[in-house]
């Protein structure tokens, strides 16, 4: 990979990792509701789960979609249904302010890693990165490089979103404010479905 292409990969991984999407919105909500410590497994699950996904996509998983186009439709239906369910869970979550650290259940590492497989933005990022930045004659090393770059760039970006959620928590000092925040996060999560449905 040329230096210019590597810089382009860095830029793509940063922009796609820092912009709003299901992972970042859920991490912000988790940071606000549970704090950074309890959100850490969620963050690691997103970061490492996505790296694993990129590797599998790069090593041939993307070819399944070419062989079986119906998988696109199945993935779309499952993704929409799951994201709507998550949005509902976020919108109806209203832990008591004084016990927010002890109540509720943030995503576990495995739940967050598994979520990447129904996250439409993650699929788009992985397939785009492999398509544009991995040469056919360097499939294995190119895929590993793309996965490494995304891991190095993605984890600080998603940590920022969780941290922003924790900062917002300072003003979420009443159950009503927390309910409003959760509803807004849920609405934004639903809006991330727009590109899929259109």
Briefly, what is this?
This protein is 79% helix and 0% strand. It contains 8 helices and no strands. Helix 1 packs parallel to helix 6 and helix 2 (22-67) runs antiparallel to helix 6.
Written overview of the protein:
The chain is an all-alpha fold and 198 residues long. It has one domain (21-94, 105-193). It is 79% helix and 0% strand. The protein is built from eight helices and no strands. The chain has helices at 3-18, 22-67, 70-91, 109-115, 120-133, 139-168, 175-191, 194-197. Helix 1 (3-18) runs parallel beside helix 6 (139-168), helix 2 runs parallel beside helix 7 (175-191) and helix 3 packs antiparallel against helix 7. The longest helix has 46 residues, at 22-67. It is globular. The two termini are 34 Å apart.
Tags for this model:
198 residues, mainly alpha
Q: State the share of residues found in helices, binned by percent.
A: over 70%
- Estimated structural class: mainly alpha
Number of domains: 1
What is the radius of gyration? 17 Å
Oligomer class: single chain
* Unreliably modeled segments: none
In what range is the share of β-strand residues? under 5%
Largest sheet features: none
Order of helices and strands: HHHHHHHH
Number of helices: 8
Strand-helix topology:
Layout: H1 3-18, H2 22-67, H3 70-91, H4 109-115, H5 120-133, H6 139-168, H7 175-191, H8 194-197
Helix pairs in contact: 1-6, 2-3, 2-4, 2-5, 2-6, 2-7, 3-7
């Amino acid at each position: 990979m040329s230096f210019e292409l590597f810089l382009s990969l860095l830029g793509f991984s940063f922009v796609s990792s820092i912009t709003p999407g299901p992972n970042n919105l859920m991490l912000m909500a988790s940071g606000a509701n549970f704090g950074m410590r309890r959100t850490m497994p969620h963050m690691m699950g997103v970061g490492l789960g996505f790296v694993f996904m990129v590797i599998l996509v790069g090593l041939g998983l993307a070819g399944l979609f070419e062989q079986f186009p119906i998988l696109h439709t199945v993935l779309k239906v499952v993704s929409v249904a799951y994201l709507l369910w998550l949005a509902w869970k976020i919108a109806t979550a209203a832990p008591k302010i004084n016990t927010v650290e002890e109540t509720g259940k943030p995503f576990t590492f495995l739940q967050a890693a598994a979520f990447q497989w129904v996250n439409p933005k993650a699929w788009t990022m992985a397939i785009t990165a492999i398509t544009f930045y991995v040469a056919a004659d360097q499939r294995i090393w190119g895929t590993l490089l793309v996965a490494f770059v995304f891991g190095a760039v993605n984890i600080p970006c998603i940590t920022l979103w969780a941290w922003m959620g924790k900062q917002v928590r300072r003003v979420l000092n009443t159950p009503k404010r927390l309910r409003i925040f959760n509803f807004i996060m849920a609405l934004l999560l639903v809006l991330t479905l727009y590109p899929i449905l259109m």
